[in-house]
Write a structure and sequence with these properties.
heterodimer, A: MetI-like fold, 9 helices, binds adenosine-5'-diphosphate, binds magnesium ion
């Protein structure tokens, strides 16, 4: 099959890897920011306070209903128009993905915490544990074991969805691929197949370990 | 309600009233348990046996009346840790900590609550687990154990805190019949050892064997109480107790069916 030279060209390889770097960077930074935010949201959502619950519920629903692309436009163009902010595409992406991750992870954390049977709290209470001790020693370890598989799944979805960032001008993996294809449109007409094939492979090597990890954890903790 | 020596009972419940919404579950209930005594609480499903134990353990607040431990009032759910440690409780559903091994389940509270030395706590856990025949399961996780094994671990977990009183709420109700014995044998041994216990159970033969006193609840009150379990089970005095005990008996009217005679 002709056209393989397009992905063997070292400069193209380097550009694709740089694009992958941007993809992974947005993904990792967003996941890292989502973790503390999501855990805090989830813990707040388990509180009885109706105001806090309503606010967080509205936040979660808003993030869920909105297509990620709309959120990206809203943060990238909206903040520029409304307040004259000059966010870079990458910064806007990190903001959107962190808000999304925090909302979804928050809901996962809430679900995991609420799924712990009340009898576990009772057992800790009669053994004399304080509320903090019960949370740290009894509730949290169980919540984390329930939480990890879906949280890893969420992280892979976040990495995959960073492909949308190119629509606000971020030159990430897919955008780099398109640029290479466009540049070689006439010289290498079959380039698209090779480039997208390579991109498939690159996403695969980032997300596959995560899916394996998630499946492992699920199996290990299916109790 | 102190006994003849004038000493306060180990555990005492006075005029205990508990409502859930409009439903009065316990209605001015009185109960006293002497040190070393084993009291078995019987009664139909939904009569408030679990609620009674939960009020004693501090898992439920009370609406009126009080709970006393060695004369000291302890009603309510806001108890300090030291007080809670004096009342051990074992639940029908075992409720072991699923992310911890058998050994860690038993040593967790002694180490983090009582700040005991880990090695010393493990040595004691070893003795307890050996006693219930589960030392070779020390590194297993609860999910890999049978119900009977889990319940024996739950008993060890409670005992490791050296409680003054143990509260057992239908500890065999969720078990397959062949596992009931292995758990109740452990409880019998505890009674032999002089542990003060309040036991809710539907195992009538076990109740007759272990009880120093039988208390029957119905309608939120004690309807019959007896220091002579054998007599209680043979000749209950109240109609309600007779009716309740008759539910555990099966009689076939022989000779009525003509085809299937023995
Ligand atoms: N947390 C609760 N909220 C509302 N009602 C309850 C609660 N716990 C128990 N009850 C009610 O109290 C009554 C006694 O329950 P319980 O003490 O569990 O009975 P038993 O253990 O004797 O079967 C039942 O009618 C039950 O529905
Ligand atoms: Mg009950």
């Amino acid at each position: 099959m002709p056209g393989a030279e397009i992905v063997l060209d070292p400069s193209n390889v380097l550009r694709l890897l740089a694009g992958l770097g941007v993809t992974v960077r947005i993904g990792l930074v967003s996941v890292a920011l989502s973790l503390p935010l999501g855990i805090a949201c989830g813990m707040l959502m388990t509180l009885r306070n109706p105001l806090i619950r309503a606010v967080l519920r509205a936040y979660l629903e808003f993030i869920r209903i909105m297509p990620q692309l709309v959120l990206l436009y809203l943060v990238f163009f909206g903040t520029a128009g409304a307040w004259g902010w000059d966010l870079s595409g990458e910064a806007a992406s990190v903001v959107v993905f962190s808000l999304w991750g925090a909302a979804e992870l928050g809901d996962l954390v809430r679900g995991a915490l609420e799924s712990i049977p009340r009898t576990q709290y009772d057992s800790a209470y009669v053994l004399g544990m304080g509320r903090r001790q019960a949370f740290a020693r009894v509730i949290l370890p169980q919540a984390v074991t329930r939480l990890l598989p879906p949280a890893v799944n969420l992280a892979t979805r976040m990495v995959k969805t960073t492909s949308l960032c190119m629509l606000i001008g971020v030159v990430e993996l897919i955008r780099v691929g398109q640029q290479i294809i466009d540049y070689n449109r006439f010289a290498v007409p079959t380039g698209a197949l090779w480039i997208y094939g390579s991109i498939f492979f690159l996403y695969f090597i980032v997300c596959w370990p995560l899916s394996i990890l998630s499946r492992r954890l699920e199996r290990r903790w299916a109790r | 309600m102190s006994d003849a020596t004038g000493e306060a009972p180990m555990l005492e419940v006075r005029g205990l009233t508990k409502r859930f919404g409009d439903e009065v579950v316990l209605d001015g209930l009185d109960l006293a348990v002497r040190k070393g005594e084993v009291v078995v609480v019987l009664g139909p499903s939904g009569c408030g046996k679990s609620t009674l134990l939960r009020c004693i353990a501090g898992l439920e607040g009370v609406d009126a009346g009080e709970v006393r431990l060695e004369g000291e009032p302890i009603s309510g759910t806001r108890r300090d840790s030291a007080l809670r440690q004096r009342l051990g409780m074992v639940f029908q559903s075992y409720d072991l900590f699923p992310t911890r091994t058998v050994l860690a389940n038993v040593t967790l509270a002694p180490v983090v609550v009582q700040h005991r030395d880990r090695l010393e706590a493990e040595r004691e856990a070893e003795a307890l687990l050996r006693r219930v025949g589960l030392w070779d399961k020390r590194d297993s996780y609860p999910s890999t154990l049978s119900g009977g094994q889990r319940q024996r671990v739950a008993i060890c977990r409670a005992l490791a805190m050296h409680p003054d009183v143990m509260l057992l709420d239908e500890v065999t109700a969720a078990l397959d019949p062949e596992m009931v014995h292995e758990v109740l044998d452990v409880v019998l041994e505890l009674a032999e050892g002089g542990l003060t216990m309040v036991i809710v159970t539907h195992e009538m033969r076990f109740a007759a064997a272990i009880a120093d006193r039988v208390v029957m609840l119905d309608g939120g009150e004690v309807v019959e109480e007896s220091d002579d379990p054998a007599a209680f089970f043979e000749r209950p005095e109240t109609g309600r107790a007779r009716e309740f005990l008759s539910m555990f008996e099966y009689k076939r009217e022989k000779g009525k069916g003509t085809d299937h005679e023995d």
